[in-house]
Amino acid sequence: MDYIKILKEIQSEISSLYTKGEVASYIPALKDVKADDFAMSLTLMDGSYYSVGSDDLKFSIQSISKIFSFTLALETYSKKIYKRLGVEPSGDPYNSLAQLEYENGIPRNPFINAGAIVVMDALISNFKDTDITFNEILSFIKKLSDNKNISYDQIIAESEIHSGYRNLALASLMKSFGNLSHDPRTVLETYFKMCAIKMTTKELSRSVLYLANDGFDPISGFKATSEQRAKRINALMITCGHYDASGEFAFNVGLPGKSGVGGGIVAVVPDKMGICVYSPKLNKQGNSLIGTKALELFTTKTGLSIF
Amino acid sequence: MDYIKILKEIQSEISSLYTKGEVASYIPALKDVKADDFAMSLTLMDGSYYSVGSDDLKFSIQSISKIFSFTLALETYSKKIYKRLGVEPSGDPYNSLAQLEYENGIPRNPFINAGAIVVMDALISNFKDTDITFNEILSFIKKLSDNKNISYDQIIAESEIHSGYRNLALASLMKSFGNLSHDPRTVLETYFKMCAIKMTTKELSRSVLYLANDGFDPISGFKATSEQRAKRINALMITCGHYDASGEFAFNVGLPGKSGVGGGIVAVVPDKMGICVYSPKLNKQGNSLIGTKALELFTTKTGLSIF
Amino acid sequence: MDYIKILKEIQSEISSLYTKGEVASYIPALKDVKADDFAMSLTLMDGSYYSVGSDDLKFSIQSISKIFSFTLALETYSKKIYKRLGVEPSGDPYNSLAQLEYENGIPRNPFINAGAIVVMDALISNFKDTDITFNEILSFIKKLSDNKNISYDQIIAESEIHSGYRNLALASLMKSFGNLSHDPRTVLETYFKMCAIKMTTKELSRSVLYLANDGFDPISGFKATSEQRAKRINALMITCGHYDASGEFAFNVGLPGKSGVGGGIVAVVPDKMGICVYSPKLNKQGNSLIGTKALELFTTKTGLSIF
Amino acid sequence: MDYIKILKEIQSEISSLYTKGEVASYIPALKDVKADDFAMSLTLMDGSYYSVGSDDLKFSIQSISKIFSFTLALETYSKKIYKRLGVEPSGDPYNSLAQLEYENGIPRNPFINAGAIVVMDALISNFKDTDITFNEILSFIKKLSDNKNISYDQIIAESEIHSGYRNLALASLMKSFGNLSHDPRTVLETYFKMCAIKMTTKELSRSVLYLANDGFDPISGFKATSEQRAKRINALMITCGHYDASGEFAFNVGLPGKSGVGGGIVAVVPDKMGICVYSPKLNKQGNSLIGTKALELFTTKTGLSIF
């Protein structure tokens, strides 16, 4: 398939959408991005790589990081992690408290905020120390993307710490139900550092390749997780990867994917490739508007939907 | 692959589970089934067929019928049907009123009861008459399964009409929001007739083959829907096909599927086959307990998950 | 106290509000009222009577009737009625389904629609027949108001039967939970007939006098209920009499009261008088806008709040 | 009336209930009370005083303090305070997050925790400093009870700070909606200090006398608030004073009242007296089990219900 041609078509077809959507405003430091930046990268199983746009632009990966921390938690805790969170779509926004209260502090899945906060709490318990925990996550991501030049944006992390009161509400509520071992602020500080990690679409498309390849990176051979877990992470991405727009994403795109409020979306074509697209303006559900459309065009043009 | 061997292994491995689960009790007439009946059928693209158990036993297809009525509604109304229902997982049981009230009478998706009632209402508007509507659905199913010997069980249909007060509540609530054109009782009578259609696992495994094959039956050539719609129905099945256990089904089985409270589950392996399994005892979420396990064993043994 | 002077002041002070609010539109036949009609009546314990406005105008009493049917149900079932409904404010609109679903079909109190439907169901069980039930309620109201010239408006009753789908949803949901003995439609028909009873402010101010006087009418001597029950009905009116504006009514008016969507509100000054005010335009919560204001002015001017 | 005789009857009649209910366990330091302590005090308008039991025992007033802080906030902010909280019963437990989320961070009323936290935030804004704010509240209570010997229990206050994660969730959620000016922890520290104030039933029965007397203390002449505000605080107590048991309290007791999880309940008989009862074991809704019963017996025996 002529991927470059397809990517260029997509780049051209989405250009009419630059006026739509809104850059995330609730994290002050996230506002300082160029609203019309765009990049899309494909990394195939054999290592071949295709892209359009600013594929060397580092952006805030935000919730995309939840894939990596959850993979680590599965390696650490295996099935025991499911005592503390579920695998069902929430049917609610990513930060809903009502459902969490009704369900006694057990988050629906690892990809809503509450779930990812529990995952972080579990990792801190395992690694004993917040700095070590953060470094373990970062070094896991470096291995997955075969790239040592990855770090986090301290200004964004602190910006979230100071304004993340809804996340503090989620963490405090879970703490009151006994589903958090550490102090809510402590967990959130590490969580926000992880969300503030910056990567390019190139790096991200590579870093999810293990999910297309039964758990190990086909280029470096790094084994991140087992085949069964890789499949299950993909399943979770398709049912829960886009909050209350997960159904729509499965419906229109047809690939396991995970979005971040920084404007990135990663997607996985099983047995074929990792994909990442970036465009910072978001739709109403908080997912990259152009990114979602670009992926829809991609599966329409290539027939590479999993369905 | 030696499908017969695999099916026999599955039949043997699930045998320890016959004591678990409960036959649906809320539809009185459904209780009269043999609790330890089991059947599993595969129909492949080339027409080859494999089965174990009582694959000629007719059982009540119940909510599996929602796939067929929704396909018909898409053919009739195209995208306009999405003004009246969504494509998101509900995160709630199949018959929740709270969410429907909060969302002004617009059901989350076509596979929860409220959504399927709206679909039926739309079909009645199109075909003008309830008998004609039912016959159109029935004849659509006959074409899909290439089998004229399919009918509904009047006793079960009437049993539901007399006890289906929660469905009456759903329909009445949608009517109060203006999302139902006909009288709630009228729509429900036809809806319950459709749910009371009886089929075998053999017939059902064939009848979903169009969803594995871009919208048309590969054996008869009957075109049921477009390629894009077939993919989207598959996407809806994976995110919404098992009510508030949809995430778990995607997670454990990894195939688009749809369950019915009568004990049947259909599943689709894109480009490969249609599957149906039957066992009447249900788990807590109202899906066949053994059926779910059998499908999980199937994808584990064959690696045929879509992920 | 110079009640006539006070009533005239009120009539003058509320005149600037005639442009505000909306006549109830969901019951088609209710729309045919004169939007600027107003009446206010006081009946004192010694039988003295004061009024302003059209106090001989018959209007649809609607939910005010719930006081009378609940009093009858208490006489019939005593405390047993509380197995089927509660005594707590709902904190939700009068017709909410979410709470009713969450609380397994047990309505919060007898003054929200679900509660009054359960009360009607209980009365039908007691009197065996819907016509007899309706006649018992009507004759109870006739005795309370010492007036035989009271009947219901058939057109309004039928108008509600045909459009009352939300009430049908409530009744069906309770039926599905086993908290309704009769068919939902049957109960609703009698319920809507009761709501369609027409009375004047004069008649209504007299008919609630038993609640100001420990359960019996001080003029005729008719004993409607016990002292304790009369006090408890007053308590229920102050906490639950105005749906999700009950707190505001207690706060601003400070009297036990019950509103109807037809534009009437009754209120009780313990040991002193029964009050009724009428004005058909409603505020957002579905209570008479001018009626509420008139009562607030009344307690401010007279100091007759219970607090 | 022979109040001493009545109080002794009550003391005798409630003695069979000492085995029921549970002492609050969520605040660790609150557990260290004698479960069978009991006291009941009446302070009449003319200063006469009646009591049974340990009326000089200091206990943790907890949520009873919300009356005093709210009165102060009304004096400070007048109607403007209602931009930040409502006057409706919540229909939910005292610490529900779901409703607060659904209603965009505006608490239903000043007597649920979220509302009292907003009141504290407003007072801190007014008095500029948390210590000054606490001292103003304490000195207001001293004036109301005409008693300088009132202080708070530091161990209980700190115990709440360390375990009050659900309150931290409420405060954080309101902060995220912009309905809190100060840091959640800062507001909660002062709030928990206020809740940890210790008083006797004698002091508390006197301190609410202003609510029975149009806003000023009839003995000392201290004017705490206006007549209208006093009536409205009473109205709020009857509709919202006992969380999701407010309806039941109005129904069974028939007086404005406010409970605290420390085991105290205050009640007001307009124009007659202030009441306080203490017994630390709580019913399911978190109100003193014996205290509630004692007040019910009191109004039954004296006929002093407001209805």
Provide a descriptive summary of the structure in words:
- Four copies of one chain form a homotetramer.
- Chain A is globular, with a radius of gyration of 18 Å.
- In chain A, a hairpin with a 4-residue loop joins strand 7 and strand 8.
- Chain A has a single domain (3-300), classed as DD-peptidase/beta-lactamase superfamily (Beta-lactamase), CATH 3.40.710.10.
- Chain A has a five-stranded antiparallel sheet, sandwiched between helices. A three-stranded antiparallel sheet of chain A has the order 4-6-5. In chain A, strands 1-10 form a two-stranded antiparallel ribbon.
- Chain A contains 13 helices and ten strands.
- In chain A, 62% of the residues are buried.
- The first copy, chain A, has 307 residues and is of the alpha+beta class.
- The model of chain A has no long low-confidence stretch (mean pLDDT 95).
- In chain A, helix 4 (113-127) packs across helix 7.
- The interface between A and B is medium-sized, with 35 and 34 residues.
